[in-house]
Amino acid sequence: MPGLLHLAAAAVGRPDERDADALVAAVRLAERGGLDFVTFGDPAAPAGPGVLAALPAVAAATERVGLVPALPGGPTGSGGLTGPGWPDGVSGTRVLEPGVPGAVALEAGVPGIGVSESGVPEAGVPGFGVFQAGVPEAVGELDRVSRGRGGWWSDPAPRAAEGAATPEPVSGARPVRVAGATGAPDAAARCADVVLVPASGPAQAAGLRAELRALAAESGRDPDGLRVLATLLVDLDGEYAAERGHGGGGPRPTPRGPLYRGGPVDLAELIASWHAEGAVDGFHLTPVDPRRDLERLVNGTVALLQHRALFRTFYPGGTLRDHLGLARPRALT
User: Fold this and answer.
1) What whole-number distance in Å separates Cα of residue 152 and Cα of residue 142?
2) Can you tell me which residues the record assigns to a coiled coil (predicted)?
């Protein structure tokens, strides 16, 4: 019996996109559809300063949807993000947690995004709580200003050497960690809460999910604490596009990943069938045309899934972990 269906979408644009109003509008649309979270950038093109500068405004304009910027991965980037109670096994950087002993404060006077004297997230405020591209502390601050809706996406580095120390499982970590499985599936299974897998069919997706769950169990984690989402580019230009004679016929491999061409109704059928087979826990969908396809995804595909009682019509909780059905952090329970 498949569990709850999870859906996420990419807020597509340039990694350094500075149009805060456009980002706010896109994320609010995703929230109206009840999506679990929205991503900004990807590990190959991480969220730039413009996106990070807009995130406090996005957090203030939304109430439930998760916010997951992509940050650089690897042992020298944000892939090493860890801290009290939420290790990832790559490095020892601590997240910014005001009032937590041992937390790392950012350099005073650095312009960026901070919190004003009244406690409101504000662009251009220097000092404690500043967001900067690639700075691990930004993730903890995003989670704080969004009241538990923050997450981060970076692909973890593989284990350095055979016999290296095995990290503590990620269970109970915060913020939510999202990772891809293509480079180092064992590291993703050990470290991530959500793993994104490119798959062109349900059989391939099911095989990847089974492998990741097995790797998670081998590392000492409860595999039921891992969510595996299939990644698809979606081109919702019209219903006829889904037919083979019009270039459709299901996801097709492309250099950017599996691509679905068709209409919102056929995409809903695909999502429902893959999930019913237990192939994946859900989908991460990247619109080819940001404005057109996100609107058709929410008002067409998601609305149909909700009408069929296959996807939520309201958020049962207030944090990203609540949406994903993941355990609360040990420190908060």
Assistant:
1) 9
2) none
Residue 131: what pLDDT?
Answer: 41
DSSP bridge pairs for 233: 259, 286
**Residue 228 tokens, joined:** 């595996």
Give the separation between CA 5 and CA 324, rounded to whole angstroms.
9
Contact at 8 Å (CB) between 180 and 157?
no
Q: Which pair of tokens denotes residue 140? A: 């903890």
Picking from 36, 40, 39, the residue whose alpha carbon sits closest to that of residue 3 is: 36
| CATH for 114 | 3.20.20.30
Per DSSP (E only), the strands in the chain are 6-10, 37-42, 45-46, 66-69, 113-115, 121-123, 151-153, 176-180, 194-198, 227-235, 259-261, 282-287
Please name every residue paired with 6 in a beta bridge, in sequence order, or none if there are none. Answer: 282
DSSP three-state, residue 248: coil
Q: How many CA atoms lie within 13 A of 94 on its CB side?
A: 12
In a domain, 212, yes or no: yes
Structure-token pair, residue 33:
């559809």
Residue 159, pLDDT score: 56
- CA torsion 300-228-175-90 (nearest 10°) is -140
pLDDT at position 259 is 94
Residue 154 lies in a domain: yes
Q: Per-10-residue mean pLDDT for the chain, 333 residues long?
A: 90 66 92 97 81 87 95 50 32 32 32 36 36 55 87 74 41 74 88 94 96 95 96 85 56 92 94 96 95 95 97 94 83 39
Q: Could you give the number of structural domains in the chain?
A: 1
| 114: in domain | yes
Q: Give dist(CA 115, CA 129) in Å, integer.
A: 7
How many other C-beta atoms can be found within 10 angstroms of the C-beta atom of residue 66? 31
In a domain, 257, yes or no: no
Tokens of 119: 């406690």
Query: Is cis: bond before 175, omega within 30 of 0?
Result: yes
Contact of 6 with 36, CB cutoff 8 Å: yes
What whole-number distance in Å separates Cα of residue 189 and Cα of residue 274? 21
Q: Give the residue numbers spanning the domain of 15.
A: 6-233+267-332
Helix (H) or strand (E) holding 113: strand 113-115
